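Hi R.,

As promised on Friday, here is the backbone we talked about, encoded as C-alpha cells. Could you run it through your design pipeline when you get a chance and send me back a sequence?
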C-alpha cells in the first residue's frame, strides 16, 4: 500500500494493514490480490515434483525465484514464485534454508534416508489405522495384546500400539479399558491384576538365579531348650520359635529364637543381592513370591526335628510377678521340638484352656499357658505407655483356594474365607513375643552404639504415621521406647540387615560398633530404608487388591446378593464377615457404626468395584469410635476406579481420561 525507506505498509487478505520491515520482504507484487495469489500458489505448489525440482536445482545456494524460473518458465510470475517458495519451505529433507529466500539442496544420501523415514512413517500410520479398525470391530491385534500393560500403565506415547488404542477409543467413544476388554485383550480379570503387578514390580520375572545356601561356619553351642513355633500350616518361612524353661522354679526363662540366615549370608554376597533386590516376600491367596529361593529358605527355616542355628533372646522373669530379672542374646543351635499350626489349634487353644478353666489337650500346654499369661501382662504394660487400650475391632481373614497349589492360581478356583480375630490367644502370644524381642534388640543396638533400622511413631494423634529411620525413637502406637524389625529375616530384608547388626553385638560386645557391617550414618542403611518402603508398600497394596478380588469372587460363587455391614463415613460400609469396604448408595447420611443391610447390584472384577445400595437399617446405633486403623485405612480399602496412564488427549488435545494394618506387630503369615 505504501513504502518508506526501511518499512512497508502491507494489506493482508483479511483487509488488515500491518507494518513490515523491508528486510523481511521476500517478494513484491502488484497483482493479483493476496488471497487470489495464495490460492493459486498453493494449488500450483502441490503439483511441483520434488524429485524433479531437486535435480534441476543448482548445486550451490539459490533463490526461490531462480528455482521457479528453472522449473516453470524464465518469466515465472508471482504465482509460480510463491508456489516454489511454499514447496521449498515444506520439504526440508530436499532443501535446506540458507538465508533470506535462499535455499540449498540436501546431499543425495540425506534425501534417500529422509525418504525412507517418511515411507516408514506412512506405513506406521497405515498400520495404526488398521489396528484401530480391528479394535473398533472387537478384535485385538497381537502387537497390542503383547504391549497391553505398557500401553495402559507405562506407555510409550509415540508407540504405534498406544496410538492405535487412543485412536480406536476416540472413534468408538469408549473408555480404553472397556474397549480392550471388548476386543478380547483382557480375558481374565485375575490374570490382568497379576500380570500388571509383575509388569510393574518384577519386570525381569520372579525366577531366581542358581544359588546355593551358604553354610554357617560358626561352632554354635546347643541350647538347653525345647522350642516350638506357631504358624499356619502352609507357612514355609518359619522365622521364629519360642521356649519356656523353669516352670515352677520361681524364675522362668522365656526364649525367643529367630532363624539366623545372617550367620551365613554376607552383605554383598550373591544371596544378599537377590534379597536386597526383592526386599520382602509377597503374599497373596494361593501363592507367594518369596524373598529368597526355597532352597535357601529351607537351609535356615526353623523346621521341627532339627537343631537350627538361631539368634536367641532370653528374658528371665519372676514367675510370680513377671518382673524382668535379666536379658541376654545368644548365638546357638536350638532344638525345634514342634511346628504348631494356627489352623489346627485355634479351636482348642482357647483362653479358658490356657487359664485352667478348661482341660488343655494339646502339646506344650503348660508352656503356652505361661506364654499367654506373659503376653497379656506385656500387652497391659504397653497399653499403660500408650495411654489407652489397643482397640482392634477388625478380624483377620484367611483365604484358601481349592486345587493344586504347586501352580499359580488362574482366578477360577473356589475360594474359602475364614475369620481369625486379632488378639486370639495364639496370635497374641506370637505378636507380644515378637514385640518384646524387637523392642529389646532395638534398645540393645543403641546401647552398643550400633545403628539399626527402626520404626517409630511420634504420637497417636490422627495423621501421625509410622516412619522408618536409623534412630531409636519411641513408637507411640506400640507403646515401646524403640522398635525395630528383626524377627523375620527370611521374609523381610530389613530384618536381615538388623540381624547382621545384632550378631555383631553378640560377638563383639562393646566393640561391636567397629565390627558391625553398617556404621553410623551409613548411606547404605538409608538406601535400604528408601527401597524397602517403596517395595513393601507396593507389595501390601497388591496383596490388599488381590484379596479384594477373591472376596468379590466369593460373593459371585456363593450367589450373595445382600450383606450385613457397618457404616463408616461418606457412604462407605464395612462388611461384617468379609474383608470388604465399599460404597453403598443411601448410607451417606448415616452415623458411623450404624448396622445396615446392603443390596449388591453389581461387581466389576476388573476395577474391583462393588455397586451396592442400602436395603435396610438394622439398628439405630449412635456413632461408634473408630478402631486402630482409622479412616485413612477405610478409604484405602475401598476400591477406586482403575487409574490408567493412557491419555485420549494425545491425538487432538482433548482432556485426559481413564476408567471409571494399623499395627507394627508381626502378622501371622497368610495361609498361602
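Update: got your reply. Pasting your designed sequence below so it's all in one thread:
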Amino acid at each position: 500500500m505504501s513504502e518508506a525507506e526501511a518499512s512497508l505498509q502491507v494489506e493482508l487478505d483479511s483487509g488488515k494493514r500491518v507494518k513490515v520491515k523491508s528486510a523481511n520482504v521476500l517478494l513484491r507484487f502488484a497483482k493479483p490480490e493476496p488471497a487470489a495469489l495464495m490460492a493459486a500458489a498453493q494449488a500450483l505448489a502441490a503439483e511441483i515434483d520434488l524429485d524433479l525440482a531437486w535435480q534441476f536445482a543448482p548445486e550451490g545456494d539459490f533463490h526461490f525465484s531462480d528455482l521457479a524460473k528453472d522449473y516453470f518458465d524464465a518469466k515465472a510470475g508471482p504465482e509460480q514464485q510463491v508456489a516454489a517458495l511454499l514447496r521449498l519451505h515444506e520439504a526440508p529433507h530436499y532443501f535446506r534454508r540458507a538465508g533470506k529466500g535462499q535455499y540449498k539442496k540436501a546431499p543425495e544420501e540425506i534425501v534417500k534416508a529422509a525418504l525412507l523415514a517418511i515411507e516408514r512413517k506412512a506405513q506406521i500410520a497405515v498400520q495404526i489405522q488398521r489396528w484401530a479398525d480391528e479394535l473398533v470391530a472387537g478384535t485385538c491385534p497381537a502387537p497390542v495384546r503383547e504391549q497391553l500393560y505398557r500401553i495402559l500403565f507405562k506407555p510409550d506415547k509415540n508407540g504405534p500400539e498406544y496410538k492405535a488404542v487412543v485412536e480406536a477409543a476416540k472413534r468408538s467413544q469408549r473408555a480404553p479399558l472397556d474397549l480392550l476388554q471388548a476386543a478380547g485383550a483382557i480375558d481374565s480379570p485375575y490374570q490382568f491384576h497379576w500380570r500388571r503387578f509383575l509388569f510393574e514390580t518384577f519386570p525381569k520375572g520372579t525366577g531366581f538365579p542358581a544359588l546355593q545356601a551358604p553354610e554357617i561356619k560358626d561352632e554354635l553351642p546347643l541350647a538347653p531348650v525345647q522350642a516350638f513355633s506357631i504358624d499356619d500350616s502352609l507357612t514355609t518361612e518359619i522365622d521364629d520359635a519360642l521356649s519356656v524353661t523353669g516352670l515352677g522354679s520361681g524364675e522362668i526363662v522365656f526364649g525367643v529364637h529367630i532363624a539366623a540366615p545372617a550367620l551365613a549370608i554376607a552383605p554383598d554376597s550373591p544371596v544378599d543381592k537377590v534379597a536386597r533386590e526383592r526386599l520382602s516376600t509377597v503374599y497373596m491367596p494361593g501363592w507367594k513370591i518369596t524373598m529368597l529361593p526355597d532352597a535357601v529358605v529351607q537351609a535356615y527355616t526353623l523346621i521341627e526335628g532339627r537343631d537350627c542355628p538361631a539368634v536367641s533372646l532370653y528374658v528371665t522373669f519372676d514367675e510370680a510377678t513377671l518382673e524382668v530379672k535379666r536379658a541376654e542374646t545368644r548365638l546357638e543351635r536350638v532344638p525345634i521340638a514342634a511346628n504348631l499350626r494356627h489352623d489346627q489349634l485355634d479351636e482348642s487353644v482357647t483362653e479358658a484352656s490356657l487359664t485352667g478353666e478348661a482341660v488343655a489337650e494339646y502339646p506344650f500346654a503348660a508352656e503356652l499357658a505361661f506364654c499367654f499369661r506373659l503376653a497379656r501382662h506385656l500387652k497391659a504394660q504397653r497399653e499403660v505407655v500408650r495411654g489407652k487400650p489397643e482397640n482392634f475391632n477388625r478380624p483377620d481373614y484367611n483365604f484358601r483356594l481349592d486345587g493344586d497349589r504347586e501352580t499359580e492360581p488362574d482366578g477360577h478356583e473356589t475360594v474359602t474365607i475364614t475369620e481369625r480375630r486379632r488378639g486370639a490367644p495364639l496370635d497374641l502370644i506370637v505378636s507380644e513375643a515378637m514385640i518384646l524381642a524387637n523392642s529389646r534388640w532395638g534398645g540393645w543396638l543403641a546401647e552398643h552404639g550400633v545403628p539399626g533400622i527402626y520404626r517409630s511413631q511420634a504420637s497417636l494423634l490422627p495423621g501421625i504415621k509410622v516412619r522408618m529411620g536409623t534412630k531409636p525413637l519411641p513408637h507411640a502406637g506400640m507403646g515401646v521406647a524403640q522398635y525395630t524389625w528383626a524377627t523375620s529375616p527370611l521374609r523381610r530384608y530389613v530384618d536381615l540387615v538388623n540381624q547382621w547388626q545384632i550378631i555383631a553385638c553378640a560377638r563383639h560386645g562393646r566393640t561391636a560398633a567397629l565390627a558391625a557391617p553398617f556404621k553410623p550414618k551409613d548411606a547404605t542403611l538409608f538406601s535400604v530404608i528408601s527401597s524397602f518402603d517403596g517395595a513393601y508398600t507396593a507389595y501390601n497394596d497388591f496383596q490388599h487388591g488381590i484379596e479384594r478380588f477373591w472376596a468379590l469372587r466369593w460373593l459371585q460363587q456363593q450367589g450373595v446378593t445382600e450383606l450385613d455391614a457397618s457404616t463408616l463415613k461418606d457412604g462407605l460400609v464395612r462388611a461384617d464377615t468379609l474383608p470388604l469396604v465399599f460404597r453403598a448408595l443411601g448410607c451417606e447420611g448415616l452415623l458411623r457404626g450404624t448396622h445396615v443391610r446392603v443390596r449388591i447390584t453389581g461387581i466389576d472384577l476388573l476395577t474391583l468395584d462393588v455397586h451396592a445400595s442400602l436395603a435396610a437399617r438394622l439398628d439405630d446405633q449412635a456413632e461408634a469410635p473408630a478402631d486402630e486403623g482409622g479412616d485413612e485405612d477405610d478409604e484405602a480399602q475401598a476400591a477406586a476406579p482403575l487409574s490408567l496412564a493412557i491419555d485420549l488427549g494425545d491425538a487432538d488435545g482433548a482432556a485426559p481420561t481413564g476408567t471409571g494394618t494399623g499395627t507394627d506387630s508381626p502378622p501371622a503369615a497368610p495361609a498361602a
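One thing I noticed while checking it: The chain has four domains: 25-106, 110-201, 227-541, 560-640.

Thanks again,
M.
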